[in-house]
Amino acid sequence: MKLDMSKSLYEQAVTIFPGGVSSPVRAIKPYPFYVKSASGSHITDADGNEYIDCCMGYGPLILGHAHPGVREAIAQQLEKGWLYGTPTELEIRYARKIQAYFPGMRMLRFVNTGTEATMGAIRAARGFTGRDKIVKIEGGFHGAHDAVLVKAGSGAATIGVPDSLGVPADVAKNTLQVPFNDVAAMEETLSAHRDEIACVIMEPVMGNMGPILPKDYYLRAVRNLTRDYDVLLVLDEIITGFRVSMFGAQGYYGIEPDLTTLGKIAGGGLPIGVFGGRKDIMETVAPQGGVYNAGTYNGNPLSLAAGLATVETLERERVHAKLKDRTTALGQALTDMMRHLKLDYTPVGLASMFQVFFGPQPENYEGALKSDKARYVEFWRRMLENGVFLMPSQFETNFLSAAHTQQDVDRIVQACHRSFEAMMTGPGTR
Ligand SMILES: Cc1ncc(COP(=O)(O)O)c(C=O)c1O
Fold first, then answer.
1. Read out DSSP for 263-306?
2. Ligand 1 centroid to 145 CA: how many Å?
3. Which residues pair with residue 133 across a beta bridge?
4. CA-203 nearest atom, ligand 1
5. What is the CA(308)–ligand 1 centre distance, in A?
6. How far is residue 226 from each of residues 12, 190, 212, measured CA to CA in Å?
7. Whole-model pTM over 0.90
8. Dist. CA 143 → ligand 1 center (Å)
9. 4-66+318-425 adopts what CATH topology?
């Protein structure tokens, strides 16, 4: 595979950007491919190689790249200007649409990234309760701010810095950690710090350690425990919102949190974050209350237009059912392949999320860390050589989009087969 142009661009980039990239997950070794263009389910690099994309911008592009309806909505908004610094009717229209699917978000705030959304939600939880401590799940990723960069998943786990330098010990001490799927550990922590904890923040399906699914009773048990101990529950649905179902994972599993965060799909591929929830909590947010949140770009009209067009398309075209069928078929083909090739790797998926764990199916962060990361990297590289761009880390989730055809799925399965066979017989690239 020819990657000369990408290599030469990267050689320039390393002299300008730390690690050569604008975000750590992109620092693929020995160098990332540079993108020229993308359309539908395909992405083309600077050297002209074309791949089936299962990264989809790390999740937002559920309709595929350059979806015509979303492009049209952005174009129409562009005609009217793209930043005003005053409210728009679009904010209300989109907020009402979000509330139709996330009825627990009785009041909400539009911000610009998922990071800002979780930061705002945690601050609101702290302001409302007057408590400093929060509980997060080991390996959960909620963006790149101090309170949550403690045992964080995603890129932080991949490059081995789950506990970031620069986070003051005084801040980190207020972030308590519990393993996913462990009700007893959650109860122990809530009980040991009674009246000190503002909120539990969690991804209902862990997307940043590969997809790790909640056990049947787990989310319900966490909801009951947080109520019993008078602690707020924040569901971070930045990956799962509009992904697991139109109603997110909270609708799928039937859990109503006190606060919800959205991002990714909610912006249709343009930057967005949303936090919202119970009215009494959200009324503490400025200017109504004393919990400060502000932003020049909050409620950005381009992001709102792209997000609303995406949600309306999902709604109108009933995309989730189709996507679920495609991803289930892919998962089944991979499971059959493992059996046939006598490999003990584990395909895992939910809705349009999927991943192959190089080891047994994990229940939590500790289990995920046991999977063979080096083997995943080898698999990833061979998949790329076979024309499929997967998430470059074992600790991420791959996505199918509405633009992925059955033919794409067949090609992904063939590429997996070729990659596994080559890994079994050929020299490793480890
Ligand atoms: C669950 C979750 N929360 C928060 C974030 C942060 O979102 P952003 O990258 O938009 O800041 C991410 C990003 O991947 C995420 O997966």
1. -GGGGTTS--EEEEE-HHHHTTBTTTSSB----TTTT-HHHHHH
2. 11
3. 197
4. 1
5. 19
6. 50, 8, 21
7. yes
8. 5
9. Aspartate Aminotransferase, domain 1 (3.90.1150)
The residue whose CB lies within 8 Å of the most ligand 1 atoms, and thus the one to mutate among 238, 259, 275, 355, is: 238
**What was the pLDDT predicted at 210?**
86
Q: Which tokens in the block code for residue 193?
A: 């710090």
- Give residue 266 CA to ligand 1 midpoint distance, Å: 12
Residue 227 has pLDDT above 70, yes or no: yes
Q: Determine the residue of 115, 272, 391 to mutate for testing ligand 1's pocket, defined as the one with the most ligand atoms within 8 A of the Cβ atom.
A: 115
**E strands present in 24-145:** 35-39, 42-45, 50-53, 107-111, 133-137
CA of 144 to the centre of ligand 1 (A): 8
Helix (H, G, I), strand (E, B) or coil at 57: helix
68-79 and 301-317 helices cross at what angle (nearest 10)?
Answer: 150
Q: What's the pLDDT tens digit per position in 153-170? A: 666 666 555 678 999 989
Q: Is the CB of 397 under 6 A from ligand 1?
A: no
Q: Which atom of ligand 1 lies nearest, measured to the CA of 272?
A: 10
CA distance 418 to 192: 52
Domain boundaries, the chain: 4-66+318-425, 68-316
CA of 116 to the centre of ligand 1 (A): 9
CB 124 within 8 A of CB 284: yes
3-state secondary structure of 219: helix
Domain 68-316: give its CATH code: 3.40.640.10
Find the mean pLDDT for residues 188-210: 96
